[in-house]
Amino acid sequence: MRKVDFTFRETPKIEVCGHVYELKMSDADIFDRSLMLADKYRSLSEKSTTRTIMKALKECAAIVDNILGDGAMAEIANGKPVCINDMLEVMSLITREAAASYAEKVSSYDE
Predict the structure, then answer these.
(1) For residue 96, is it within any domain?
(2) Which domain range does residue 28 map to?
(3) Which of 45, 46, 63, 71 has the highest CB neighbour count under 10 A?
(4) Is 17 within a domain?
(5) What pLDDT is stored for residue 26 in this prediction?
């Protein structure tokens, strides 16, 4: 019988606004969820209804919490209300880091 052993790397961590979190999703899943959110709310504008904007805010906060752990978005914002632009910026920064991590892993396969 053949045997395959594999040691998984430690759970990746990310520091956001001075808070360190263990990622609860893979880099590929983070990137996928971010693209899905961006596609869904690409047409947001000042003409969007309050309901649509609030739905986008809640969805974005939920995704950040899914990535970093329950309550992470509130912790990052120091308990203050967060505007949609700031929340999307946080999501964007996390996504960029996940994409960079994914690219590093993929390039290491060629070495």
Answers:
(1) yes
(2) 23-102
(3) 63
(4) no
(5) 85
For 8, the token pair is 């998984």
Q: What domain count does the chain have?
A: 1
pLDDT band at 38 (very low <50, low <70, confident <90, very high): confident
Q: Nearest Cα to 57, choosing from 18, 88, 103, 21?
A: 88
16 is a domain residue:
no
Tokens, residue 43: 């047409």
Query: For residue 85, what are its two tokens?
Result: 């632009």
Residue 87 and residue 37 in contact, taking contact as beta carbons nearer than 8 Å:
no
Helix or strand or coil: residue 17? coil
pTM of the model: 0.78
Q: Can you list the positions of beta strands (E) in 1-111?
A: 13-16, 19-22
* Average pLDDT of the segment spanning 14-19: 89
**Is residue 68 in a domain?**
yes
